[in-house]
Amino acid sequence: MFSTKEQLEKKTGPYGIGRLSYLQSLVTEFQDTSSQDAVEETDEKLVEFAIGGICNLCLDKENKEYILKNGGVTLAIKCLSSSNEETVLSAITTLMYLMTPASKSEISCTPVIECMIRFSKSSNKRLSNLAHVFLQDYCTKTQVEEAEKIHQQLINAT
After folding, report:
1. Residue 76 contacts by C-beta under 8 Å, 6 or more apart in sequence?
2. Where are the domains of the chain?
3. What is the per-residue DSSP string for 65-103?
4. How does DSSP classify residue 158?
5. Out of 12, 45, 53, 151, which residue is the most buried by the measure of CB atoms under 10 Å away?
6. 45, 35 in Cβ contact below 8 A?
7. What is the pLDDT of residues 56-73, one digit of tens each?
8. How far from chain centre, in Å, is Cα 134?
9. Other beta carbons within 10 Å of 135
10. Gene3D superfamilies, from UniProt (predicted)?
C-alpha cells in the first residue's frame, strides 16, 4: 500500500541504501535504459502495473487530487478496453476511488455505464461483480436505463 517518505526511512534504518533510494534507482534505470532485457515487461504488463499502482495511490487524498487534476479519469477509462483482466479490474476500481462530486459526471458518463453493463453480463465473476457494484453505487437508475437502451441498440446493430 501507500507509504510516506518517513515510513520508508523508518523501515530501512540508518544503514544501507534505503528503500526510497532503491525504488528511485529502479525507476531511473527503467526510464534511462535502452535495453529491452533490462525492462523485462511488455507494454501490456506495464499498463497493468501502472493502473494498479494508480489504483493504490488514489486512496490518499493528496494523490487523488493530483490524479484527478492530471487526466487520471481519462486514462483509467481508456484502460477499460484492455484485453488484460487485471488492467480492467484495476481501472474500474480506480474510477470508483476517484469518484467525487466534481468528477462524477466524467466517470459516470453514458459510455462508461454502457461498458459496465457489458461487463456486468460477463461470465467472469470478478468482472461481473465489480461492474454490478459500480452500477449500483455510482449510477442512477435513469442513467443505467439510458445506457441499457444504447447497449441493446448496439447488440441489435451487430
Report:
1. 51, 54, 91, 94, 95, 98
2. 108-158
3. HHHHHTTHHHHHHHHTT-S-HHHHHHHHHHHHHT--TTT
4. -
5. 151
6. no
7. 999 999 999 999 999 999
8. 13
9. 21
10. Leucine-rich Repeat Variant
Number of other CB atoms surrounding residue 122 within 10 Å: 15
8, containing H or E segment: helix 5-12
Q: 97 is written with which cell numbers? A: 476511488
Residue 59, Cβ density class (10 Å: 0-12 exposed, 13-18 middle, ≥19 buried): exposed
Is residue 53 within 8 Å of residue 92, measured between CB atoms?
Answer: no
Q: Which is nearest to 83 in space by CA: 54, 42, 26?
A: 42
Cell match 459496465: residue? Answer: 116
Length of the chain: 158
Cell of 73: 479519469
Report pTM: 0.73
- pLDDT exceeds 70 at position 129: yes
